[in-house]
Amino acid sequence: MSNGNGANDFGVSFGRIMFLQQVLSTHSNVTVLGRHDDIVFDIRRNRQGDVLSVVCVEAYSASLELVMRVVQTFPEVAVIFVGGKWNGYTREAYEFCEEHKIGIYNAGEIAGGLHSDSFWNYEKLDDEGNLARSIKA
Questions:
Q1: Residues 6+ away with beta carbon under 8 Å from 112
Q2: Average pLDDT for residues 70-81, to the nearest whole number?
Q3: How many helical (H) and strand (E) elements, i.e. helices and strands, does the chain have?
Q4: Looking at residue 110, which CATH number applies to its domain?
Q5: Chain segment 28-71, per-residue pLDDT in tens
Q6: Is residue 9 part of a domain?
Q7: Is the CB of residue 65 less than 8 Å from the CB of residue 10?
Q8: Distance (Å, whole) CA 76 – CA 127
Q9: What is the structure's pLDDT at 124?
Q10: Residue 60 per-residue DSSP state
Q11: Strand boundaries in the chain, DSSP class E
Q12: What domain range includes position 50?
């Protein structure tokens, strides 16, 4: 696989891609197998033994339209990373991803999602034990 250090059709910055690469390469349950198309990381989850494709996008609020574009462009997508802890996704995008067994996470959620056997429906809890989804309008 090529390193993929080129332009991408999703407007994702080099900094965001490198941030995700750092998250994945230091995750205790992940081995990075490679990167292609600039924004797609192929990983192996060590405990589960599966291989997943993680697509990096950069959206304050990832819409259903963006998610469907990712799925159309990268049909093998298993996880969509939307960006930093302040980023999120619409309820429609979340529900579509859950229905299609695609994890959609921001920086505060992805580590837990990659540990979870059911990576597509991992739900982070806040300090009081309430769901802490990053759903935005």
A1: 122, 124
A2: 98
A3: 4, 7
A4: 3.40.1340
A5: 999 999 999 999 999 999 999 999 999 999 999 999 999 999 99
A6: no
A7: no
A8: 34
A9: 74
A10: S
A11: 30-36, 40-45, 51-56, 61-62, 77-81, 88-89, 103-105
A12: 14-121
| This prediction's pTM | 0.91
Would you state the structure tokens that stand for residue 5, as one six-digit string? 């250090």
The verdict on residue 131 lying in a domain is no
Q: Distances in Å between the alpha carbon of 132 and those of 24, 78, 122, 124?
A: 22, 21, 11, 5
With respect to residue 130, please indicate whether it lies within any of the assigned structural domains: no
Rounded-to-integer distance, Cα 13 and Cα 39, Å: 10
Our count of domains for the chain comes to 1
Per-residue confidence band for 122, with pLDDT thresholds at 50, 70 and 90: confident
**DSSP string of 103-131?**
EEE-TTTHHHHHHSSSGGG---B-TTS-B
Mean pLDDT of the chain: 92
Does residue 36 form part of some domain? yes
Q: What angle do CA 24, 94, 25 make, to 5 degrees?
A: 0
